[in-house]
Structure to design on (376 residues):
């Protein structure tokens, strides 16, 4: 929350360092992208002559070298297409550029935090500025004080400035669970737990269908402004889905922590390659963030000390949670389950979550049984 003069200095600093980063990128591209130490020989004196401090100049060089490392990793992974594709040729044929408001890293020599006053002292091209106020939640401030470590990034978005700090939070010691909460993941219902919590996917699926229709309209235009709008909408949709997954994961982990239970998750790796669907269903499957929700649950559980196990979800939708009978005919419809053996009628996702809870408990117990042969 800088004052007007402070904001002007921060904005000028970001534009200066990113303009120089573009110059360093051109030098690196002309010399075949040498290693960081070699690149420093070609660029460091000029950066110092332009008014950058020693640490700021080093960070600009490192930022450029890291950007090329990321680019080359994406090329090797095939993320930019095949060797002669237009996208890959475009990426390889010109130097990397940096936006004027792009992030600039700061270490503890360039940035110091005063947590009690909620201010920072930060280096700028106009000199070091002190008493720059910042705001955050009480929980975030507590995490900053206890766990902040390493560099922080300064960025500007729509005229507002943000400091992104790195915090290394240690994992809590996992406790011995009293039971397990099974989590059944799906498309109609994003998540259903064995304790009764259900996150309906109706609103999110409706949002995605609307975004899909808007994308189709923009793609037909084939103009630069349409492509720009497509990128904006793609980022907006990703943020919306990410926020939804955060809320669901936090609810599940909080419930498990409150009841001293563990969490039993489906092992869904490779589901897109295993499952065969009709064409209208493929969009829903491939746009659903399978791994993201699972990752959020895992990292939040580790932070809270909640045990997590992954189980095989095979036939969980056809198995009765009460008697264990497996039959394809048990699943009457998407939402209804009726066991052909014991006659139990239940919501299909709720029944599957109970099956997963039992499998999680069995897996946890099996992992603690001794596999050593008995002493003769």
């Amino acid at each position: 929350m800088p004052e007007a003069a402070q904001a002007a200095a921060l904005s000028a600093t970001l534009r200066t360092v990113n303009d120089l980063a573009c110059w360093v990128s051109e030098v690196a591209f002309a010399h075949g992208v040498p290693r960081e130490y070699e690149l420093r020989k070609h660029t460091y004196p000029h950066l110092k002559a332009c008014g950058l401090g020693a640490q700021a100049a080093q960070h600009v060089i490192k930022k450029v070298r890291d950007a090329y490392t990321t680019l080359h990793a994406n090329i090797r992974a095939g993320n930019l297409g095949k060797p002669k594709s237009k996208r890959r040729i475009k990426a390889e044929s010109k130097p990397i550029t940096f936006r004027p408001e792009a992030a600039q890293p700061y270490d503890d020599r360039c940035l110091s935090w005063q947590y009690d006053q909620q201010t920072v002292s930060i280096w700028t091209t106009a000199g070091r500025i002190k008493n720059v106020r910042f705001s955050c939640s009480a929980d975030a401030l507590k995490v900053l004080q206890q766990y902040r470590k390493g560099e922080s990034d300064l960025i500007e978005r729509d005229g507002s400035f943000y400091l992104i700090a790195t915090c290394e939070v240690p994992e809590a010691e996992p406790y011995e669970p009293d039971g397990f909460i099974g989590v059944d993941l799906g498309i109609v219902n994003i998540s259903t737990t064995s304790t009764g919590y259900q996150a309906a996917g109706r609103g999110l699926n409706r949002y995605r269908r609307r975004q899909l229709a808007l994308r189709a309209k923009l793609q037909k235009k084939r103009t630069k402004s349409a492509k720009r709008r497509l990128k904006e909408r793609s980022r907006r949709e990703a943020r919306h889905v990410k926020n939804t997954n955060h809320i669901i994961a936090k609810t599940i982990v909080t419930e498990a922590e409150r009841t001293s239970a563990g969490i039993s998750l489906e092992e869904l790796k490779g589901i897109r390659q295993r499952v065969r669907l009709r064409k209208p269903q493929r969009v829903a499957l491939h746009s659903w963030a399978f791994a993201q929700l699972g990752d959020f649950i895992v990292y939040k559980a580790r932070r809270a000390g909640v045990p997590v196990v992954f189980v095989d979800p095979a036939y969980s939708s056809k198995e009765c949670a009460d008697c264990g009978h497996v039959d394809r005919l048990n699943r009457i419809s998407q939402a209804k389950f009726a066991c052909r053996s014991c006659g139990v009628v239940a919501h299909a996702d709720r029944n599957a979550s109970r099956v997963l809870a039992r499998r999680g408990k069995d897996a946890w117990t099996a992992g603690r049984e001794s596999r050593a042969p008995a002493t003769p």
Notes: Residues 72 and 92 are 9 Å apart (CA to CA). The chain has three domains: 4-103, 106-167, 180-368.
